[in-house]
Specification:
- This is PaaD zinc beta ribbon domain-containing protein.
- It comes from Stomoxys calcitrans.
- InterPro entries: Zn_ribbon_PaaD (IPR056572).
- It holds the Pfam family Zn_ribbon_PaaD.
- The protein has about 60 residues and is mostly beta strands.
- The protein has a domain at about 20-55.
- About 0% of the residues lie in helices and about 35% in strands.
- It has no helices and 5 strands.
- A 3-stranded antiparallel beta sheet has the order 3-4-5, with no helix packed on it.
- A hairpin with a 6-residue loop joins strand 1 (about 20) and strand 2.
- The chain is elongated and about 45 Å long.
- The protein starts with 18 loop residues before the first strand and ends with a strand.
- The relative contact order is 0.27.
Length: about 60
């Protein structure tokens, strides 16, 4: 039997960590943020329980 992979879930995220229910491990928790490519305007969000990637925030260009 092949394990099914959940479809991608897109979160409306801002520059700060958020409390979410992870679609992969089903645990509630605050996201972990990591800066991407040494940029202060792009952040990636990960589940604090299982570490799965949840989404990206890009600061709008002014």
């Amino acid at each position: 039997m092949v394990a099914s992979i959940p479809p991608p879930v897109y979160f409306a995220v801002g520059p700060e960590p958020h409390e979410v229910c992870c679609p992969y491990c089903k645990q509630k928790g605050t996201t972990l943020t990591r800066r991407f490519i040494m940029s202060w305007c792009v952040r990636r969000y990960y589940c604090s329980s299982c570490g799965e990637y949840l989404g990206t925030y890009r600061r709008p260009k002014l």
